[in-house]
């Protein structure tokens, strides 16, 4: 397996802000088990049908990206269900390189600020 060319631990969770994080049947069952809930209850509480998908993650407000996965800790910037996360999250970005990480690393270097976060959510004034 090729070495990853990014560090998720330094990322503000960009991939978790995607409007569509698909949840397959096996993912839904794993998440329901994680919370010790019947699948039917987990379906209502954690997922919705949207964008032509049977099931996607519900989202909540986020100061950087506007909306983010409901299971994302917005203070620690970490997944709260990491062990039970869906396949889409496990497989991301699907290769050894993350485009957002490259962009973030470039911006942090250009800004000379290791904590700089470039966002896609901008408040209108």
Short structural description:
This protein is of the alpha+beta class and 125 residues long.
Task: Please characterize this protein's 3D structure.
Helix 1 (25-34) packs across helix 2. 29% of the residues lie in helices and 17% in strands. The protein has 125 residues and is an alpha+beta fold. The mean pLDDT is 86. The chain is elongated, with a radius of gyration of 16 Å. The N and C termini lie far apart (47 Å). The chain contains four helices and six strands, in the order ααββββββαα. A two-stranded antiparallel sheet has the order 1-2. The chain has a two-stranded antiparallel sheet with strand order 3-4. The longest helix has 13 residues, at 99-111. It has a domain at 17-94. This is YkgJ family cysteine cluster protein.
Number of helices: 4
Distance between the termini: 47 Å
Shape: elongated
> Biggest sheet, open or closed, and with what strands and sense?
2 strands, antiparallel
Strand order of the largest sheet: 1-2
Task: Detail the poorly predicted runs.
Answer: none
Q: Would you tell me the overall average pLDDT? A: 86
